[in-house]
Amino acid sequence: MNRDHLRILLPVLSLGILLAAVFYMQPRAMSYFGLNLLFNLAVPVALATIAQMMILMVNDIDLSIGTFVSFCACVTATFVQTDPLIGYGILFAAILVYAGMGAIIYARGLPAIVVTLGMSFFWSGMAVLVLPSPGGSAPDWLRTLMTAKTPFLPVAIIAPIVIAVVMHYFIKRSSLGVLLRGVGGNEQAIERSGWSVMGLKAFAYGVAALFCVLSGMALVGLATSADANIALRYTLLSIAGVILGGGEFTGGRVSPIGAVIGALTLTLAASFLSFLHLSPDWQIGAQGAILIIVLAVRLVFTRREALI
Amino acid sequence: DTSGKTIALSNNYAGNSWRQAMLESWGKVAYQAVQDGVVAGADAFTTSENQATEQAAQIQNMILQGYDAIVLNAASPTAINGAVKEACDAGIIVVSFDGIVTEPCAWRIAVDFKQMGRDQVKYLEQRYPDGGNLLEIRGLAGVFVDDEISAGIHEQVESTKFDIVGSVHGDWAQDVAQKAVAGILPSLPEVKAIVTQGGDGYGAAQAFEAAGRPTPTIIMGNRRDELQWWKEQKDANGYETTSLSIAPGVSTLGFWVAQQILDGKEVPKDLTVPFLRVDQDTLEEILAETPVGSVANVEYALEDAQKLIQSAK
Amino acid sequence: MNMNSNNTRVENPKRGASHLLGVFSRKPWIWAFLAAGATYLATLVVVSTSAGAGSLLYAALTFASFSIIVGVGQMFVVTLGPGNVDLSIPATMTLAATLSLKFMASDPTMIVPGLLIAIGVGLACGLFNFALIMLLRIPPIIATLSASFLFQSLAIWSNRGLRIKPPASLADFATGGTFGLPNAAWVALLVSVLAWCVLEKTIAGRWISASGQNTRAARLGGVPVNAVRFGVYVGCAVLAGLAGFVLASFSGGANLNMGTEYMLMSIAVVVIGGSSIAGGNSNVPGIWGAALFMFLIVSMLNSYGLGAGVRLMLTGLIIVSVVVLASKRGRKV
Amino acid sequence: MVENQNVIGTEEVPIITLGDAGVSFGPVQALKGACLSIMAGECIGVVGHNGAGKSTLVNVINGRLTPTSGDVSYDGAQSVADFRNAQRARESGIRSVFQELSLCPNLTVLENYRIPYRNMPIKGWRKNAASAVLASLDAVFPDHGIDPYSVVADLPIADRQMVEIAIAFARRDIDARLVILDEPTSSLDGAIADQLLAYIKKFCASGGSIIFISHMMGEIFDVASRIVVLKDGTIIENDAAQNFTRDGLVDAMGHVAPDDQTRGADTKRRDFGDEVLRMENGLNACQGEVVGLAGLAGHGQAEALAKCFLERTSDWSASRNPAVVFVAGDRSRDGVMPLWSIMRNLTLQTLVEFSRTFLVDRKAEQNIARTWHEKIGIKTDDLNNPILSLSGGNQQKVLFSRALASSAPIVIMDDPMRGVDVGTKKEVYRMIRSEAEKGRTFLWYSTETDEILECDRVFVFRDSEITAELKGDEITEENMLRASFEMQEAGE
Ligand SMILES: Nc1ncnc2c1ncn2[C@@H]1O[C@H](COP(=O)(O)OP(=O)(O)OP(=O)(O)O)[C@@H](O)[C@H]1O
Ligand SMILES: Nc1ncnc2c1ncn2[C@@H]1O[C@H](COP(=O)(O)OP(=O)(O)OP(=O)(O)O)[C@@H](O)[C@H]1O
Ligand SMILES: [Mg+2]
Ligand SMILES: [Mg+2]
């Protein structure tokens, strides 16, 4: 049992406990139909969380994920629906912009938090330009995909598992994943072996953007349409998801399985709070409290580093 | 007989006086209905953030909790259609009001927002047949209501002598509106009137006052502070305007309509409620009824709902 | 001795160059004012009258004041170095404003206690943030974020979205002006002058700047770094509380979403104003330039009739460009 | 060394040849005119004091540093020295274990193997990597007990060092021909170090080459076939190992003994005041005493000093009468405020002491700065110039003034003379002496022997522990070297 396993234990436990509580309060949830309802909106959150994880993995943070996913959703509900070629072209260009942003952040030694903050205005403006008022519609194949009646397990369960497994293999098992995590762990060691840290960072940002695109598409598939503000919350949800899933802000210590579990936990926590009939006044505060509690518990799992 | 049925209110935002008045009306009417044994339960839920994704999840949770009907003020007309469809498929009655949804299986108690825009301009046309310059204060960019009202205004302005010389986004917040108006004001010629979307009239008046410019005719949105200001101006210099907005009590209408549908009544999918309008002569009366910090309101009774249903047939 | 003479020879050209750069980098606020001035002139193109030009400036000063007050607080936090940002400013503003307006209940005799409540709320929020950062060792970003959820909940719970008017005399003060300047700007000026004095004149200012440049070296140089961090986070929250109080008095009541735009705004004015997000280098005048600029750019785009989309896009691009340009200057020195 | 090459044979091509290579970092000449060629099968031991240029030398060989003068050639290819040297070195099978650990702590052992292996085949790489690392670990360190699937951060420091060494020897597409080991045994215990030495011998016997840097004389004599002695950036000896004796080697790398007039003439006082400081590890000091901390770099002296300082000062308040002050040696990390002027840097420590209110007393500040400007001779005509406009040595003088201007009874100095010129050093020694006579206590860590010789009492550190306490006449370079180097008997 190494440190990675230990790190994943906490999120698994919290998801398990929460799920048990929900099943106890609402036995109806324990069905194909119920699981789908509980978790299908967690799919885009999980994708956005993976995107944030890619950025945290290289020791940066992205505050523009929410607006970027909204932008992607707007493009999906409009151009991808009507002129697929242009639509995919826009999305591809957006991924390149993201990768370029990663390269510039490294090359100029910029604070990622400020650059992404600025970019969040940019994407939000782009989203309003693409879709000035809510609407658009989901491409049919997307709608079919997101609402498919799969045997045994609903899409809402299969999709997170697929995302987690694929990303686990990519990040934790593939040899490229090793280099990416190495950038977060010891940039100098990577550089010494002759790799281009800038290239790796740009790649990480590009993959993050790809997952934001997927998140936007999944969201449109579920919601059937988009608006420019549809995913603003994903910025915070994604950061919280990664951290809840055992990831850390620095040091390349992230876990894709943990991140997906973190996303599911956050979604489930909201349902749990609503099943509790907690006063709406306190729902948002309860989310803050959950974050603080889990982060405080992590203190036990991580070493404290002193100033000197 | 609906005494065994439960109804839930799904609300996406509680951060302003209108929504608080709406929740309060629901609480009052629904509580009474439960006491009277009309329905078995009527719970209200509010999402923690004004986000379509959260509301969709909330509706899905309501499906799981087995409510018979969901009364809904939606964050987006289209973005929660997926969840609404799932509710319908599960045999749940969905009634949307104020922020309505386009999903065909749901009922809509609509306020014709376009009409609201048109009515503002119509009123102004009557006041100023010779036209003049208009300033438009819009709501939050990228939101349905904002677009509808604005479209109505522009449509109507076409056929008049009015000119829209400026347009700003006030995000339906007093302070943002005030800031935006103050910023554009210096570049504007004389402004005859301001068309608004509700809740930003007071801010606009403040901005004009601060800039030392004559106060134009500002269309109000039924907020208490707007009415109060209007009253002061009226008493001081006979200021004239009008105020219109949807009454927060429309949630209770939603409640009764849902109850009627559960009761097996035949109800058309589209119902329209009139705005609550305050005029020069009704100002004092309505101002007196409106609690401090809140918004002008009416609550609806079962009979109002039945009348509305009847008239729509 | 041989070595010494070598040293002098090497030093001379070096000093000349760095002296020039030093002069340049000591006034990074010039850029913010240049940008604000350019935007102002560009807006004047569509402003018809000279009275309009004056009133645009007046409006800009009024609304920039709120950004300046929170910006000054954020500047102190950012000065502490990488990773230090206070994301709870909007929630603190809202909470302080709702609680104090509710307490005053439009009663003019309650203004002073109301102000004290706003400041007290700021104090409490700052303490809470600092406790999360210090005791639970949660990174400042996520600590202040989580805390802001709690503050927001408290604000919702405490007055349920009702808009309670400020006492009339307070509202008059907040919206009025003295000697041709808006009162809000006087408040901002007072805050700025105080902040400037703290940074330039007091020992605490030296300590803040030292901690931001190199915490470890500061600690070894006798700076009580924890006390500095404590003061900075609490001070920032107190300023947010004050800004909430003034803003609510100005706009005729507190809104639950009144602080929303100040989260990004507070960071943007700090960065555009020429303070380095890498810490140690803060800049009070620059915040004025940046805050005016942020207001004027919106006015300009509105006056030109450009939509919200373009406005947001341009704002984003400007922030990113300023950061990229600033990094170039930072590298050379 | 010329004979040496001839003996091996002219037909054989050296793996690397340095021709008059030099490296300077600004004014610091870290390596001067180095000529060296390394043939297959050689094990070169490199010795020298801290800062002698050993790491710089090996960084030139592995291509990470481009020499500022001279040239480098790999495998007898044309002599060039440019930024592509790192690639050339890799392709010639040159591998390095760096002095500072360069593993990614968040990755597993086998994943760390992936990082230097640029063209690793993708298929089944984890299995292959695990078996390659394991094979190498087994070969170098039998009975190591390290699981290649464990995360590096979970491993104790010695295991990490073993992993790094094993990765350098592990099989890859290009075979290892020259492995550079920069102080590989610094964190290994004796038995494991012996395993490594045994493996090195085997490796060389089978035609591989090694560059072995160590401060352990025994190890050097055990494995090296040739020994290179570096001093102040110059290769002063380069000869077959059998031509050296241990004492000769220590002499060769030792610093010039200070001229006897200055030393010893300072009659050392024996009558110190009360004990004012005592730490858990046994370090203690009396009032008016100058206590030296000796030993090799990185053996816990700096940590002991930092601990001593932090224990006696607060994170929460600054006192008007501070108990200790600190003089940093690593200026950029521990001392200088890069954005500030010279004056501000100089007065940071004394702000509270010299102000009666919470405001900075500008007048007092200027007085202090002016006083020290003259007293210690900071080379500038305007104290408002940025600190970075000063040369390193002058920056160091500012840090000295910062501490000495305070009234604190204990002064902690962490190798404070880096980059300070000889004249100033003398001046500072004199100042320290006179301050000590006035009753101040100094804790002085230095990597330079003649500074330690200035002290009244010396503690020698090894592996974060005090291995010797030297007083009076016992304070000699030889005694210090003896206590800081592990004199293993295996060597002879
Ligand atoms: N990047 C650098 N910039 C400036 N000076 C440097 C740099 N690297 C090394 N030096 C200087 O070059 C000299 C030689 O350093 P080097 O690291 O080669 O010494 P070393 O013999 O390896 O010492 P140690 O035994 O401590 O490892 C030292 O004076 C050092 O301060
Ligand atoms: N922690 C562990 N300790 C010991 N053996 C392990 C451990 N983890 C895996 N193994 C074993 O090592 C072998 C390789 O496992 P691994 O899954 O890493 O390789 P792989 O599936 O071939 O890799 P890839 O699919 O990336 O090519 C398997 O036999 C596995 O059982
Ligand atoms: Mg495998
Ligand atoms: Mg070295």
Helix coverage percent of residues of chain B? 40-55%
Main β-sheet description of chain B: 6 strands, parallel
Strand content of chain B: 15-25%
The structure class of chain B reads alpha/beta
Structural class of chain C: mainly alpha
Supply database-style keywords.
heterotetramer; A: 308 residues; mainly alpha; ABC transporter involved in vitamin B12 uptake, BtuC; 14 helices; 0% strand; globular; disordered C terminus; B: 313 residues; alpha/beta; six-stranded parallel sheet; four-stranded parallel sheet; 12 strands; 44% helix; 17% strand; elongated; binds adenosine-5'-triphosphate; binds magnesium ion
Describe the structure.
The complex is a heterotetramer of chains A (308), B (313), C (333) and D (492). Chain A is mainly α and 308 residues long. Chain A is built from 14 helices and no strands. Chain A has a single domain (3-307), classed as ABC transporter involved in vitamin B12 uptake, BtuC (Orthogonal Bundle). In chain A, helix 3 (42-57) runs parallel beside helix 8 and helix 7 (140-146) packs across helix 11 (197-223). The two termini of chain A are 30 Å apart. Chain B is α/β, with parallel strands linked by helices. Chain B is built from 11 helices and 12 strands. Chain B has helices spanning 17-35, 52-65, 81-89, 113-127, 144-158, 174-184, 201-211, 224-237, 250-262, 283-289, 302-312; strands at residues 6-11, 41-46, 69-73, 93-97, 107-110, 133-138, 163-169, 193-195, 217-218, 243-245, 270-272, 276-278. In chain B, the strands form 3 sheets. A 6-stranded parallel β-sheet of chain B has the order 2-1-3-4-5-11, sandwiched between helices. A 4-stranded parallel β-sheet of chain B has the order 7-6-8-9, sandwiched between helices. In chain B, 64% of the residues are buried. The model of chain B has no long low-confidence stretch (mean pLDDT 84). Chain C has a domain at 68-284. Chain C has helices spanning 2-25, 29-44, 50-79, 89-104, 111-134, 140-159, 168-175, 183-201, 203-213, 215-220, 225-250, 262-272, 284-303, 308-332; strands at residues 177-178, 181-182. The longest helix of chain C has 30 residues, at 50-79. The radius of gyration of chain C is 21 Å and the shape is globular. The two termini of chain C are 30 Å apart. With 492 residues, chain D is α/β, with parallel strands linked by helices. Chain D contains 17 helices and 17 strands. In chain D, strand 1 and strand 2 form a beta hairpin. Chain D is elongated and about 70 Å long. Residues 1-10, 255-267 and 487-492 of chain D have low confidence and may be disordered. The B-C interface holds B 14-17, 19-20, 141-142, 166-169, 173-176, 178-180, 182-187, 189, 202-203, 206-207, 209-213, 223-225, 292-294 and C 43, 46-48, 52-53, 55-56, 58-60, 62-63, 156, 160-165, 175, 182, 247, 250-253, 255-258, 261, 295-296, 298-299, 302-303, 305, 307-309. The complex binds adenosine-5'-triphosphate (2 copies) and magnesium ion (2 copies).
